[in-house]
Amino acid sequence: MANKTPIILDFFKQLSAFPRCSGNEAAVCSWLQTISSESGFASKVDEAGNIVILVPGTKGYEDHAAVVLQGHMDMVCEKIPESSHDFSKDPIQNIVDGDWMRADNTTLGSDNGIAIALALAVANDHTIAHPPLEFLFTVKEEVGLSGVNFLKPGFITGNTLINLDSEDEGTFVVGCAGGETTHLTLPIRFQKTSLTSALKIIVSGCRGGHSGVDIHKNFANANKLLARTLNELSQLGPVEIRSISGGTAHNAISRGAEAVILLPEGKVESSKLIIKNLESVFQEEYKGVESSIRVSVEVIKVPHDSLSVELSEKVISVLNALPHGVTNMSVSIPGFVETSNNLASIELKPTQLKIITSQRSTSMSKLREISSRVHSVARLAGCAISTETSYPAWQPNMNSKVLVTCKNSFNTLFGHNPEIQMIHAGLECSSIGDIYRGIDMISIGVTIENPHSPTERMYIPSIEKIWDLLVETLKNL
After folding, report:
1. Contact 122, 133 (CB under 8 A)
2. Catalytic positions, please?
């Protein structure tokens, strides 16, 4: 087959010009409608902003059953602290670095922009054979799969779906964890302080990563490291919090967190020593996994108000007590994560502390159990609790026709079998399967490393292999 990678990457570059953080996909949707119209394809958009593009089957395949190619339009918007990139208006810079593509100190958006680029390349290649196609591109996938939940019966008609949101070209995904995002809100009130010293504490340099696919890698969560630091300092004497923040997205492991605290003047030097020692402790705990963890401290001007000592202790306690990381490994699948929780973000506002946590499990009963643990900690602290998004687990069907077809196509092309697995991350297949009962699904994709972080990169040679697999599978379907 001809190498289509340059054409696919050209579509990806065009897409990268559009800001598309979750909730800001309208411009991308309009662009897709324009491309569809110019190519003579019909399209439709639902009330949530999800779009379907209808591509007729090629000659001899016109009357075959339709196949859905599916991905999402939004991306996780993360950058390093030094970056001046504005995700509301600036294009993502696509930088080729050897066999890899990355961005300029931001997320690349290959998760899941490459799905759109692959689909558009299929639609514009008149040399390949395929049945009628429905390109389904959704909104707000990165904020709890919320856009896909607005799909209505009849919006797509195909009973076979190929999701293009996996991140290893040699692996087929046939199932995923269910999940939900839990928001905790603690009412707070600032008051005039009587303490005489203030410190600004910054936890930085953590790798971050995807809270599903990376949760088992033992990457540090900056929110938890900050909570541990504040808890240690509170043992010295009274501590009052003036500000605290950390993390940016429910599905990203926090890379940085910071707080401003007030304390008695006589406790400054001992506190600085504790922080320095904790930095060494954290570096030792994560040796071999993290290489850049830093806990810095700076004496600053004393703010005029803060949370009371009692309220500050409550904030520190709830952050310290909330679970983070793997809570259960699968009994039936050796080495597979069953259940986890991500302490995703912390934000102190004028009247409330907002905490976002993300629970995942392939067992719906264990999902309820880990969520109930989070709820219990929250209730003890007096937090209000709300669940923003919830989606079921996608259970595998090893007799799936599309799985068998993809597997045979892969073997024909590459001379060996692919790896077949479930993943701990959430995929839109879970919700699609719940809405369109009986739909036959598989997830494939190019190789992507470090999604949801500024070190995200895409392996360019894998694009050609996924293209060849997609073309062969569509022909065989």
Report:
1. yes
2. 74, 141
The number of angstroms, rounded, from the C-alpha of 167 to the middle of its chain's C-alpha atoms is: 12
Residue 40 shares a structural domain with residue 92: yes
Q: Range of 83's domain?
A: 5-177+393-476
281-315 exposure pattern, b = at least 16 Cβ within 10 A, e = fewer: bbbeebeeebeebebebeeeebbeebbbbebbbbb
Residues 167 and 238 in one domain: no
Query: 370 and 224 in one domain?
Result: yes
The band of 39, judged by pLDDT with boundaries at 50, 70 and 90, is very high
The count of structural domains within the chain is 2
Q: Is the dihedral of CA 49, 121, 450, 445 positive or negative?
A: positive
DSSP type of residue 18: S
**Amino acid letter, residue 318:** V
pTM of the model: 0.85
Query: Cα-Cα-Cα-Cα dihedral of 308, 181, 448, 170, to 10°?
Result: 140
The pLDDT tens digits of the residues spanning 265-289 come to 999 999 999 999 999 999 999 999 9
**Sign of the Cα pseudo-torsion (398, 403, 409, 410, in order):** negative
Q: Is the backbone peptide bond immediately before 112 cis, with ω within 30 degrees of 0? A: yes
Q: What is the CATH number of the domain that holds 319?
A: 3.30.70.360
